[in-house]
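Morning run. Coffee first, then this:
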Amino acid sequence: MTISRRILGYALAAGILCGGASAHNIWAVGPVEQWIAADDDVARNISETGFFSGIEIADYRFSENGFDWHLIRFTNTAKPYGPLWLVPHDDENAAFDAMIAALKEHGGVGIAVNSGNGSARMQSGYGRCGVDVRKKAACDPNRNFDSQSPAFTSTILDQRPIGQPVIALHTNSPGFAGDGQGGRGDISIVDKIAFRQGEKRARKGALLAVSPIPLMANYDTLGLVAHARAHGSPSAATKACGRALSDSGIHFWHEEVDQSDGSMSNYLALNEPDIAYFNAESRADADLAIAASRHLIMVKTFIDRCSSGNKPTAGP
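And here it is:
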């Protein structure tokens, strides 16, 4: 069975699935075969019949602050008006696969950051990365959204069709650093201090899923919407969105942002709060189709259940 069919199969089994892009002249459009040697994700999926069907592929290379960037754009040719899908980390293969599936299902434009052969998480180079004033030899793409990196930030956001949200897809390592179980990273729906003391409760600003199916029950799979602390509590639409997702069996976190860490969620919350944003975090799995199917469940539910302030609009 192909990866795409397996992804859709998991989502179907769960009962879930059924513009202003500027600077077009800087993007080089070409056949999918053109990127086999340059991008591991294309090479990994090229043999699957129809994986990239109905999708126009283009790329753009540029340098900024000592780093050479390669962005690959995927556009649903039949339905280009839809969300801006974003996969900033090249090592998160399930997120890429989910982006292509979601792009076909919901339309829009997808952007993947390509770090080169080997699908490294970080972009090599030497210079300033996002909000960090220190020069470094590697830059996390999802820490590079900042006014100090305007080319990187605007080139991606300029691909967003007017009125559409940015939907970022990430895979999330199991657990969290310091959980006593070998976990890594920071993203989890549970309160970390309470968890270390043997209590499992939602972290500040989070809602635990109501009666989640087994596929979605783990604490590393969650939807996230950020808001600036200076703006007060989340908007009524965002609160309603969070409740709708939680009631649909999806963990949800209202991330409160005070100072940007350079992520897309933080950048938009502090600088472009009128742009709707949703981040789908899926626990990493050796079976990419399982992790990707969680992404599809979250974005499908987000698009279906959230109010107009936090979902794609019907059309231009």
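The first strand starts at residue 28 and ends at 30. Good start to the day.
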